[in-house]
């Protein structure tokens, strides 16, 4: 028993150290979920559930690795989200955030990922391991502006510099098997670690069941174990269809923020489901289409609103089924194209559309100022240059134009609040086909 506890502790420490060392994550592009995983998938609008191309495939569909050779991929991206809010002036009215247009600081984040796959049993089976992450909510508003009537100080809520930083790291250990030469099934085990820090929201102490565990508590850790299932059907070289599902991952509570998040600091990872097809009218040309569903409303911290938070009322933060960010379930529609011009050059482009996780009704929950996940249109492009049969380079670029969501401050209907964000991302991966 003691040995098992020691092993579990070592696993947690290892995952935590890895997260700190390599994953300085920023904002994701579909709420707290990235629009795609792996640089090749990202260059095609995040598609890939029906078209496996690299060893990050298990992040989208673990069944896909049954159709891959032995290979390793090492990727690195620079992500730049530009986000903020604009609020009208309501002085001397109470319960207003600092008026004016304000942008969050911390605009550059480094996103590494890596993967490895290997077939076995005469190409009927395959296993893979990959490491990747999400940055769910990251903002860092300075305290060099004033005017909030929530608190006496400077910053968004009158409590100084404000923001939140959520990071997630997934270790994906996948197995896949071809039930027939055309049909494979796969499953992944997902040890997961999250970190969270929040600051500048101490003015919400009257609403919290544990005001000493609400704000400015440094970085806290949360752990969980999930899984992902997938299938892939390739009846011909010209068509394939795939699907995957990842149930909600139950995470341990952030004890240092049990006065901030519902259910005494609980922030589970929402369930996701993806289905898609790939059509290749000729060997050199492929078209992909995926649809993804993210069930934010089934996680209290994401889906619950602050409608029950009233001045002078009972605590609404940190309690069972307490207040959250009021995000809605989200659909992500993804489209990608790949054109192989010769053995050296492959060109890719894509587009992804995210239905709004923060509709105007949720802008009323002004806590979303520190989590303005409002982006919708994603435009991507990329390529592969093959140095030889073994090594290739896969650069890509993402542009997300500015999106704004508008609503009223629920605590003061006289104040209009607009959340906005735009994003840029560029990166590349090195692919190594082993044994070729």
Question: How would you characterize the overall build of this protein?
Answer:
With 436 residues, this protein is mainly beta. The chain is built from 5 helices and 15 strands. A hairpin with a 4-residue loop joins strand 13 and strand 14. It has a single domain (2-433), classed as Porin (Beta Barrel), CATH 2.40.160. Strands 1-3-4-5-6-7-8-9-10-11-12-13-14-15 form a 14-stranded antiparallel barrel.
For the termini, the CA-CA separation is: 45 Å
Helix proportion range: under 10%
CATH homologous superfamily designation: Outer membrane protein transport protein (OMPP1/FadL/TodX)
Which CATH architecture is right? Beta Barrel
Low-confidence runs: 1-26
- DSSP strand content: over 45%
Q: What radius of gyration results from the CA coordinates?
A: 22 Å
Main β-sheet: number of strands, strand sense, barrel status? Answer: 14 strands, antiparallel, barrel
- In the CATH scheme, the class would be Mainly Beta
Set out the fold topology.
Layout: H1 2-22, H2 39-43, E1 71-87, E2 100-103, E3 109-120, E4 125-138, E5 163-180, E6 183-199, E7 220-236, E8 239-246, H3 262-265, E9 272-282, E10 285-294, H4 300-303, E11 330-340, E12 345-354, H5 360-363, E13 377-386, E14 391-409, E15 412-433
Antiparallel strand pairs: 1-2, 1-3, 1-15, 3-4, 4-5, 5-6, 6-7, 7-8, 8-9, 9-10, 10-11, 11-12, 12-13, 13-14, 14-15
């Amino acid at each position: 028993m003691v040995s098992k506890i020691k092993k579990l502790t070592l696993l947690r420490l290892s995952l935590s150290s890895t997260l700190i060392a390599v994953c300085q994550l920023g904002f994701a592009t579909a709420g707290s979920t990235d629009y795609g995983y792996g640089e090749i998938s990202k260059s095609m609008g995040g598609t890939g559930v029906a078209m496996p191309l690299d060893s990050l495939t298990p992040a989208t569909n673990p069944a896909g690795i049954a159709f891959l050779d032995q290979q390793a991929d090492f990727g690195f991206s620079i992500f730049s989200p530009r986000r903020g809010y604009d609020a009208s002036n309501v002085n001397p009215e109470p319960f207003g955030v600092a008026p004016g247009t304000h942008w969050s600081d911390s605009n550059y984040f480094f996103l590494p990922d890596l993967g490895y796959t290997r077939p076995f049993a005469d190409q009927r089976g395959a296993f893979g391991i990959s490491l990747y992450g999400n940055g769910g909510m990251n903002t860092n508003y300075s305290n060099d502006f004033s005017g909030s009537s929530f608190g006496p100080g400077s910053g968004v809520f009158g409590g100084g510099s404000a923001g939140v930083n959520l990071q997630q790291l997934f270790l994906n250990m996948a197995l896949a098997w071809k039930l027939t030469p055309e049909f494979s099934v796969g499953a992944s085990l997902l040890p997961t670690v999250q970190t969270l820090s929040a600051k500048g929201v101490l003015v919400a102490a009257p609403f919290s069941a544990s005001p000493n565990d609400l704000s400015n508590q440094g970085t806290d850790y949360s752990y969980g174990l999930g899984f992902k299932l997938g299938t892939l059907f390739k009846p011909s070289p010209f068509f394939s269809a795939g699907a995957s599902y990842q149930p909600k991952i139950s995470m341990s509570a952030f004890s240092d923020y049990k006065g901030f998040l519902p259910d005494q600091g609980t922030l589970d990872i929402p369930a996701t489901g993806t289905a898609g097809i790939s059509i290749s009218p000729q060997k050199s040309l492929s078209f992909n289409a995926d649809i993804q569903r993210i069930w934010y409303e089934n996680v209290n911290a994401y889906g619950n609103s602050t409608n029950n938070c009233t001045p002078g009322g009972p605590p609404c933060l940190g309690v069972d089924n307490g207040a959250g960010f009021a995000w809605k379930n989200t659909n992500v529609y993804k489209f990608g194209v790949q054109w192989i011009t010769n053995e050296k050059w492959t060109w890719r482009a894509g587009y992804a559309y995210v239905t709004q996780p923060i509709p105007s009704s949720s802008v009323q929950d002004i806590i979303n100022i520190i989590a303005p996940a409002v982006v919708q249109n994603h435009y991507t492009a990329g390529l592969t240059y093959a140095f030889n049969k073994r090594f290739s380079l896969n650069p890509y670029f993402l542009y997300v134009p500015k999106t704004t969501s508008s609503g009223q401050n629920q605590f003061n209907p006289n104040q209009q609040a607009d959340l906005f964000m735009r994003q840029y991302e560029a990166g590349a991966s090195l692919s190594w086909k082993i044994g070729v």
